[in-house]
Structures are given as C-alpha cells and as structure tokens.
Amino acid sequence: MDYALFKRISKVTLGKEKADLVLKGGRIVDVFTNEIHTADLAIKDGIIAGIGTYYEGEEEIDMSGKYIMPGFIDSHLHLESTMVTPNELVTIAAGCGTTTFIVDPHEAANVSGTAGIDYILKQTEASPANVYVMMPSCVPATDIDDNGCELTAAKMKPYLKESRILGLGEVMNDPGVVYGDKKLHEKLRLFAGRPIDGHAPFLAGDELSAYALAGIMTDHESTSYDYAMEEVRRGIHVHIREGSAAHNLEAIVKGIVKNHIPVDNFSFCTDDKHIEDILRDGHINYNVRRAVKLGIKPVDAIKMATINAARCYGLRDLGALAPGYQADIIACESLERFDITDVFHKGRRLDKDSSPKVLPCDGELKNTVHLSPVSKDIFVLPIKDKTAHVIGIDASQITTKHTIKRLGNTDNYIPKNGLNKIAAIERHKGTGKVGVGICSHYGISGGAIASSVSHDSHNIIVVGDNDEDMAIAVNEIIRAQGGYTLVEKGKVYDTLPLPIMGLMSDAGFSEVNKKLQRMIKKAHQMGIPDEVEPYITLSFMALPVIAEIRITPRGLFDVNAFKFIDKQG
Amino acid sequence: MDYALFKRISKVTLGKEKADLVLKGGRIVDVFTNEIHTADLAIKDGIIAGIGTYYEGEEEIDMSGKYIMPGFIDSHLHLESTMVTPNELVTIAAGCGTTTFIVDPHEAANVSGTAGIDYILKQTEASPANVYVMMPSCVPATDIDDNGCELTAAKMKPYLKESRILGLGEVMNDPGVVYGDKKLHEKLRLFAGRPIDGHAPFLAGDELSAYALAGIMTDHESTSYDYAMEEVRRGIHVHIREGSAAHNLEAIVKGIVKNHIPVDNFSFCTDDKHIEDILRDGHINYNVRRAVKLGIKPVDAIKMATINAARCYGLRDLGALAPGYQADIIACESLERFDITDVFHKGRRLDKDSSPKVLPCDGELKNTVHLSPVSKDIFVLPIKDKTAHVIGIDASQITTKHTIKRLGNTDNYIPKNGLNKIAAIERHKGTGKVGVGICSHYGISGGAIASSVSHDSHNIIVVGDNDEDMAIAVNEIIRAQGGYTLVEKGKVYDTLPLPIMGLMSDAGFSEVNKKLQRMIKKAHQMGIPDEVEPYITLSFMALPVIAEIRITPRGLFDVNAFKFIDKQG
Fold first, then answer.
1. Does the N-terminal peptide bond of residue A336 adopt cis geometry, omega within 30 degrees of 0?
2. Rounded Cα–Cα distance for residues B92 and B108 (Å)
3. Cβ(A546)–Cβ(A172) under 8 Å?
4. ipTM summary value
5. Nearest of A285, A318, A315 to residue A301 by alpha carbon
6. Which of A25, A253, A263, A408 has its CA 20 to 30 A from that of B303?
7. B residues 216-235 near A, CB within 8 Å?
8. What does pTM read for this prediction?
C-alpha cells in the first residue's frame, strides 16, 4: 500500500479520524473463521479501515439486521455474449452483488485481436466493479478456422505488464496441451506463475493428468460431480457453472454435500448469462442461493463466491472483509434468498435504479465485416452420386447429428421437405471462402436468416430455403457491419445491428431485447420450431470442435474424424 | 514448466514410458478433497507424473499399508539458532518429514548483513529439502542497537530476483508498522505482492488492524486461541508454533477444535527447535501428531502442515500430491503417531541413516569479532547515591524484573550476595562501546561466563562475579572469534567455538552437543541455578525490546520507558 494512503487510512483504523463511511451494526460474515458477528465496518478511500464497535464516519448507514459480505466474484465469463456493451452487463450483474468479473474476451479477440481485448479493458475501466481479463489462449480456436487474427505468444507478451490482465484464458485446445503443441506451450510458459484457465469437459483420466501437469489450474466445464472430483484430485480448481445455457450446479453441489467434500477448491461462474436471465434470477447470488438450497452451509457458499475465487486468481485484496481489503461489500436480509439489497464497490454505493451507461466505441471496431456484396451464385450446391451429408440440428443439444441423405443429382440443390441450405462466409479478410451445405430440423421456409455471431471465428452464417434470400440476408449483414437479420420473400423483415465487431450493439439493452424478441417471433412464424432458439442455434453451426458435423467457410467438416468432407475453400 | 521437461514427464503420465520411480499401492492422502485412496504414484524427473493404478517404474517401492502424504512445511524458523550449520538442521528435520523450510536468517543478517543471507542460501542449495528465505526486515532490530549491518530497502532490492527469496521476514517493529515509520514502510512497499511475515504478540485490537492494513500477512507469535482468532479475523494467517522454547499449539488447537473453526488459515512452525529436541520428538510431524491428539481430523492436520502453508507462501508446486507437483513425499504407518518412515525430496529418497554433511564456510564470515583484547578496567562500575538498577533474571520467563537495590557507594562495585556484574561489549565495528550493570538470580560465583550469541545484535555478553575473569572470558571469545566460554578462577574452563558469524559451529552437531553439555554442567556447579539455562538466558539479556530492563553496549536500558537509564556509550 502506498505510504500516504496507509497514513490516511490508519488514522481511521486507530480511531483518530472519522471514516468516509461506516456501515453500522450489520452481521458481518467472516470468510476466514466462518463466524458471523455484529459490528461496524469503517471505510476510508475505498478500503476497509477496520471492523469494530466504535467507528464514526462522515456518512453512516444503519445495517442492523442485514448480513454484510464481501462482493461476489464471477470466476469465468464472456462479456461479449449478451450482445450489449461490456459496461451494461457488468453494471446489471453488479446490482445483484457481483463486484468482480474474471472475463475472457475470446470472441472479441477472434474478430479484432488485441484491439478487441483493448476494447474490453477500456470499456470496463470505470465500471462499478472490478473487471479482470484473462488473455484468450486459443485464437484462432483451431488450425482450420478462418478468424480475424492470430494471437501468438509474442502478441500477448506486452499485456503481461497490464495490471488487469490476470493470466491465460480457457485453454480449449486440450489435445494441444496434452500432446505438447509447441506454439500453445509457448503461451503456457509465457504465463507460468500466473493463473491459467482450462476448458476440458471430456478428458480421460491420464489425459486430464497431463492437462494438469502442463499447469492448467481451473476448469468451468465440469458437468458432473464425478468429473469435477477427477479434476479437483488433480489440483484443478473447479468453477461451478450456472448460466443461461449451462446448468451444472445441481449435479456438482449435490455430490459435494452427499460426500462431505470440503469446498476449498470450488468457486462459481456464469460463463454466459443473458441479461434477461440476470434480471429475473440474479447473477452469482443465484449460484449461492441454489447451493444453499441444495445443502451447502451459507458461509461455505459465500466462501465459494468470494475468498475461494480471490485466492484462485491471486487477488489478495478481494474476497474478504478485513483491514486493507478493497471495500467491495454487499448486503442481504436472508442467507437463504440472497436478494442483495446494498452493493458497495470501492466504498461507493451502487445506485441500483439508474440505467447502466452505454459507452461509445471507436470506428475501427465498428467496421469488421470485410466483404463485398455477394451474389446468389455463391450458394450453388451441386449434388453428385445422389447423396449429401446433412447437418442434423438437435433442439436440445449443442451437438449435431451427421446424416447422409439420398437426394436427386442436380447442378444446384433446391431445399425442400423441411431441409435448408446453410452457408458460412469468411468475413474478416475478404478471402472469398464460402462453405455451403444442407441442414435438417431448422425448418425456415420462404426466406433466410443470417448472423455475424458464429463461434469461434464469427464469420457470417446463413440458413435459408432459397439462394436469393440467402444473398439478401448476407448483404444486409454486410451493410449493417454485423448483426442478426431475417429475410422474407426477397425483403429484409428486420435487422438487429451488432456493429461492434459484429458481436455487440451500442443501442442499449432494452432496444436490443425488444427488436430481438420481435425477430425471434417472426422466425418461428417462418417455420423454425419453438424449441429451437433461432440465432443461438445458428451461432454454433460453424464451430468445428463440437460433434458431429459443421459448416465452415472451407466446407463441411466431420468433427469426429476431424477432417473436411468436401473441401471447397 | 519447461517444454522438454513436459514432453518427458507427460510420456509417463500418458502411460507411454516407465516412470523413474513408482510408489505402489500406498494410501494417498488427498489434501484437495480430504479423501484417502489407494493408488500408485509415478515420479519422473523429480516431479509427480500421475496417480493411478497402472504405472510402471524403473524402480518400484511397495507402499501397501502406508499413508502417502506431501512433505511437511515449517512455515517459520531460524536456522542459526541451533548453532550447527544450516544443512545439518535441515537434513535432520527432513528425516522427520519436513521437506520445506521457510527460514528467516535474522541472526546472520544482524552480524554479516547480506553476506550472512548469502551464506544461508549457499549452504542450503543442495540440501535434501526446499529452503526458502524471507528477507530479514528489522536489521538492526531497533535504533538503539549496535549490530553489524543495516539492511535497508535498497540493499534488499537485488534479492527480489532470487527465486528462493520469498518475501519479507517477520516484521518485529510493530510500532513502526502501525504508526508509519517511513524506512520500514519502504521495505513493505518493496515486497508488496509477496508474502510478508509478522511478529506481533501483544497488539491491541485497532493496532492489530493497522498492522494487517499495512500488508502483514502472517504471524507465529500467537500464544492463545483468542489472540490467534483476532489475527485470523483480520486476514492474518497464523503459524501455530511448537518449538524448543515456545509451546503454543495446545492452547490454539484446543480452541479451534472446541469452536469448530475451519483450519484454512492455520499452518505450523517451529521458530526455534534444537536438534536434540528434533531427534527426540520430531519436527513438524510432532505438531501434526499433537494437533490430531487434541482433536483435529488427521487430514486437516496434514493440510495445515502442507497445502495451507504452500498457499500462504504462493508455493504452487508444493504441499499436495498431484500431477506437476514436486515429488516431495513422505509416508507413515499411523495417522496418530505420524512416525515418518520414508521421505522423498524431488523424487529422491532421503537416506535417514547417513550423517548430515557439514559444509565449509568462507573466511570472512569466520572473522566477525572485530575487537581488540580488553582489560578488566572496562568493567569498572561506580555507584553513587547508594542505589543501583538491577536486572532481575526470571528462570521461567524471557522477561526480566527491573529492581532498584540499595548498595554502598563505591568507585567500582564488587559483586556479592548472589549478585553478578553483567556487561555487553560491541563487537562488530570496534566502537569501544561497553555497557556494565548488575543482575540478580543468575548466581555464577568464582568466575565468568560469556557468549557471542546475544539477540538481536549478537554483541558479546558476559556475566561474572569479578572483573578479571570477565575480561578473560571476553578475550577468549575474541580469540575464538565467537562462541560460548566459561572461566573459573582466572582460567578458561572450556570454550565452544562458534566461529561462523559468532553464531554457529562447523564442528558438527555431536561434537557441539557434547561440549555444550559439559560446559552447562560446570556452569551449574559454579552456582547458576538448575532451572536457568546458562547460555540461552544470557543470549536474551541484551535484547532491548523485551520487558523490563536490559544491558546494551550503550548502557542499561529501561524497556518499559524505552530509554536508557544510564547512557554510557
């Protein structure tokens, strides 16, 4: 601590001067001893000066009857996924008591490289919470990806000096880790001694051991208690994930409770949680509430949301209430409901009723669809030998089914019988790479749907039942410089522009949500089944690491065999 | 981890090559999950490659029936205190299962500054254990000390690059911390972000808060459960001490057990433990055994001795058994007795029967008594006003009693009625400073006793009943360049030379111990009561921070008033 700062704060600690703020008579949750005791908490210059029974402050707030805890920590999330600007998500989640976010700007980096990371850092500089960044480790995600930028160890190196860059982000290339990919291991060495996040949902025992051996320290992909325990036994800290799509908490927590496992090596994360879900259920406080309901002791659940995560990431002044700790403090009235009534970040009270600020974005990042308008000819799909490989969409899973359908030979396949054409168009470097294929169980009819949000490379993905509307949809995405669009019978029905890297809107959450709901409704009217979320489903169709078959700008890809079926690019 | 190393070890992890060593079928204690499960543990290149049921090794050792644990960690100790060379102590304690030592070379630094620290680092480089060094923070201990060297922040700075320098050693100058001494805070800032050890046995509530606020992270001076809890509540990690002199374990552990306090923020240390005590009772395994006996669950006690300490000091590859962790492994047959049967450091088995090596010491460090022979005239002590301040020695305490005795006026006091003369003679810089006083309840008669071990400045301390023998004793210490001596009626009875900085012998433990026991016996015969340990008692008489009265080379010092009674220097 800076000397002058120490001198100022210690005067409050020693009772010689008034604090800036004293929270009076709350029930302080002590994550070091598991005690709850009633005391005053004194804050000076954004830092906890002392906890006792005699502090006076310039401002004093009566906290009697409330539980006072350290602010919660989301150990792993992606800010880009909600399609709003980073500060909006952070501010809304902070209102639920999450005061620290460990973010991985994997999507931004895939589009705009280090400029995308700089954007996330800059946008969250003045947010009412701590936002730390893990350097995206796998950009591009695979060797067969056509993304916007390659993030090499050399490009990462200057970021080691940035105080908000904590470590290396989720290392998804687990074969690269386990079997010693040189370029990837360069990155691991670069971040040696710092936190390195993992992503390994399906590793076998000895491969998981090799993954840990390489220095991977966390994982948030455990979906079962047994797998989580396999990780913890190998020294891997498990972030129990409960987000919009992934619901892993119940399975893991039930096992912990049943088997009396200590919670030291577990934290919480959301990974991806949409704003509408946060507004309805809460954020990390939802994970805490659920864990307590399933039998974790309240203070243990609070520790998982605070000190455990802080220790995991070496954040020494976060995650506890004690002298010298940052005054990130939250309060609630019930250790069952965990409805957060008060949030303080660096000793400043968060105004939960004010709308979060939408911060402007620089020009370059709003100009990332580097593609000239296309003609319908790019969607021509000849069929020979009367068969075609078809992507079978499964409404309940992120995985797809690889089927082979008998169809008539043709110079250009025309979709019918509920099938659609699907295409992925490279949009970062204007390479002209276009992959075209057929998908089933999506069912759009009389038009096309397109998006620039398409994991992990975020090329343009489009599905339709005719080439003309597919071209209109793609050209509309180009015009808007990214977004979601829906085309019906030759005309654009509506477009949600996502001009920031083709991933985010700067129109504000309520505007985005209103338009999105209208477009989703229309998409269902055009034939997409109710159980299929039109745009999220679309966003995974080009992801070549999830089984069984995907479309990429280089053509159809057999994930299980890890090779192209029909290389066109 | 280095890439080539990863490639080599991962082949073992993945079952493609044989391990160097496999410990077969032991009961592995998992400090992450609190489980104990039977498995093989494979080691390659000194690192744990994997834990499973199928490993093969070039060497295999049957461990059936034994408990396999991570090597224990002594969180705080001083190697100099046993008077033998560092490698001897480390090797003997390693035989009891302590494979990591967090040492504070406070004594060596007080005599020889950074050269003393370099000595400790060098001597332990090839020891069969990890020896990490905390930079001594308070050298000299106070402004009124006459020691060998001032260790400023500037002198410490180059050591930040040394991988075995972990952080800042016990900050004993607690008023300096609490009330903002600038030079001390410079050191705290220099080590910001690294571990900073405390030493604060008696701080009041808000002073303890200010101590924590300043960034002090640990303390090993808690003697009661209540005080330990006051520290833990403030985020201070408590090292529960059980050494030769201090026995704090029972009081603290009983409280932990009674109040169901989690053990996360507790570790173990010895601080000072003599080799004869280690050989009789054990080292950190003794702390573990005692804790279990008092009701701590065995795996929790093991965690306190391993992962808790490793996390406290940021030692990421120590304190657990998992892939990538250093193969510091110990075994025992009972989780009650904790008699350690096997010790491996970096995968190499410690030969418990071989004698520890005594490593040679360079010339400069064996020439640290910079003082010309003295005459008896330096001990002249006039008495005016018929009174004298007397140091009352208390056999059962390190504290002394400040009494004022009525004596006859004289130009040079001659001891009688069980009183002695006591003197402290500056020996580092030949300043000629000599403080002379009177002490009671030590009782040597017909001679003198002297030592160059005298906390914290390690000047020469001498007690006798006549000036002639006191001069002979001091001159013998000068001749031997440090040590313990005993003089009877004008002749040196015997001397234990401690030529290494005047603190340690390089003659080997058994030689040292034999001579020491003989001299102690004789000292008691010369009148020192059985309950007074002659040399250890002597070594605290010049320590001006422990109440109530001390002798320093500058004269008698009233510790309570923190001022000299009779400044002579």
1. no
2. 21
3. no
4. 0.94
5. A285
6. A253
7. 229, 232-235
8. 0.95
